[in-house]
Amino acid sequence: MKKWVLGLIGLLAAVGLIGYGVAAHNQQVARETASHRRAVQAASARQATSKRRAAAKAQAAKAQAAKQAAAKQQAAKQQAAAVTAQPLPQGTNHAATAAAYAHPAQAVHDTMFSRFDPAQPKVVYLTFDDGPNLTMTPKILAVLQAAKVPATFFVIGQQIGASTAPMLRAEYDAGHAIGLHSFTHTYGFEINGDAAATARELNQTLAAVRSVLGPGFATQAWRYPGGHMSWHHLQAPDAVIAQAGMSWIDWNAASGDALGASSPTTVPAMLAYHEQSIHAYGDHNSTVVLMHDAPDKTTTLAALPQIIAYYQQHGYQFGVIE
Ligand SMILES: [Zn+2]
Predict the structure, then answer these.
(1) How far lies 213's CA from each of 24, 67, 88, 183, in Å?
(2) Residue 130 C-alpha to ligand 1 middle, in angstroms?
(3) Which of 78, 80, 185, 237 is deepest in the core (most CB within 10 A)?
(4) CA–centroid distance, residue 37 to ligand 1 (Å)
(5) 29-62 pLDDT, tens digit each
(6) Model-level pTM?
(7) How far away, in angstroms, is 296 Cα from ligand 1 center?
(8) How far is the CA of 259 from the centre of ligand 1 (A)?
């Protein structure tokens, strides 16, 4: 064979080998690509699964929260339904059943600081400011119901709405009384002795309560945010209150739940504070106890049965402020 023929054969063989090699390589690449694709697919499937799991978990948590909220709402409704619905008030701030233990605000105001008369009964007025709300109001109502004692709720107008209306109604139906505690609970009108702002705060709150308890609702009881004792220059606001046929009511006993950082944080500490406060103000025929109906006043809620027991054991009658 000629040399060139051999060369050609060799060349062809080489090309063939290379071709085979390339094909084999391509196959390898294809296999690798496929396995890479499978790996990516598997990874993304895993990711999708964990995403689905996280979503399901979030969904479950959401459902749980919704369930809890529904249960809470249900409990509030049951609380509201636990007492018989009363006919709406006609010129008063309490149901007719409460008339037996309701005392005019002016009389309470006057006897809170006057000399103790042993011939007259001792009456305690439990008062709760800053409600209504869905968290604490039903719990306070439950404690009062269990102890079978009445109280007076000084409500904030802007807290009264569709969701809290059943709480206000429950207070009323259970034989408690409703006083006004301003619409916004801001202190501007007191700091400035602003008569117009006082009238606005009073009328808006009265309108809010009437939207729930009807136009026949009327109350003589007003409590200034922070209490009358905290402010100077209240001559003009006081005149507005008096003109509306109301008396302002402070307190001469307290659970100490509005002292911020220095509020008692345990039940024994709160009971000690409460007893101390009674002695600090001296003996009077009317004892008005300041407490708060707000979601964070859990110590007050926990101490409430024993605060009630104190007055039961010391011969007090329980009254509401008309
Ligand atoms: Zn308040």
Answers:
(1) 89, 30, 6, 17
(2) 5
(3) 237
(4) 67
(5) 455 555 556 655 666 666 766 777 777 777 777 7
(6) 0.76
(7) 13
(8) 12
